[in-house]
Description:
CATH class of the largest domain: Alpha Beta
Helix content: 10-25%
Strand content: 25-35%
Number of strands: 21
Mean pLDDT: 97
Largest sheet: 7 strands, parallel
Distance between the termini: 21 Å
CATH architecture of the largest domain: Alpha-Beta Barrel
Radius of gyration: 20 Å
CATH topology of the largest domain: TIM Barrel
Shape: globular
Low-confidence stretches: none
Structural class: alpha/beta
Amino acid sequence: MPTFLFKGGRVWDGEKFENKNVYVENGKIAYMGSDEPAADYSYDITGKILSAGFVDIHTHLKHVSTDNFGFEPHLLTVPFGVTCAADCSGNNGSDAVMDLFTIKPVVFAGAKMADNEVDFETLEKNLSRYNKYLVGIKVYFDQHGHGVTDEKPLKVLADYAKENGLKMMVHCTNSPVSMKEYLPLFNPGDILTHAFHGGENTCADDNFESIREAQNRGVIIDAGMAGCIHTDFTIFETAIKNNLIPDVISTDITRSSAYIRGGIYGLTMCMSIAKDLGMTEEDVFKCVTSNAAKAVGKEAEWGTLKIGGCADLTVVDYEGSGYDTTDKAGRRITNDKSLRCVLTMINGYIQYRI
């Protein structure tokens, strides 16, 4: 395998920024420091950030998600610096299919509710498709078209997930009851996605008390922007001002949003929006590296740069073409500059470069 030297950049190792060089050999991080080892390929990344590969915990990957949502896995991820991703409505494919992906995947098997009950027949059919990539269950807790009228089936599903060693991810827009009523049902490590939505029963309804309590006991708070249709910018901004910082930033990227919603939609655009709404750069990067890896139980392997670890990394800068996007409430935010990915490496192989 070729060797690579990245020199002159700021390095985000999953926890902190430092100015140092990074040397890759045999697909691993072999050196980080001030020296410049001889390499087959040397890149001067002065003015750029080299980060641990980004982890997007809410995507819809073709061949795993439903055909209505899924899009080519490589295109949804690698051009945005994403090296690892979770599919979040798994009802197609298998481990053998995901073995062929360039990125490193995991899957949340799709769960359904009907007549205010969990459809276990469908859930167990979906669960049976996956083994080594399975990390959890994803459910729509939305009263509009998803067969749920109160929190009772969510309690059943949370108990089932815990008994089977699985995480539960909950799409919470337009929930039938308030967060105060349903968040106590979550187990530590379960994930609330679209946490800052502007539909019915938002996290702002009780001045963020219920969501803060849930986060304090280990529930993962995911911004889950969804092309901004499941994000209320004012609620998100107010949460940040009140020091309620999400654990994770994800895209909920689909064939309907990729590259088109408000700009070149992907994880780097979501990161840019979060930063422009008031999050610190450190918090933004933590939300897509170490925190995101921990959310899917992969903190030992993903979202970090360490000597001997896999060379999964991305190089980004702030020279992107910007964005111009509007949330469901009609609030428009825009910036003529944004984060962009200039290089993505997985297992020591460059998969994307501009």
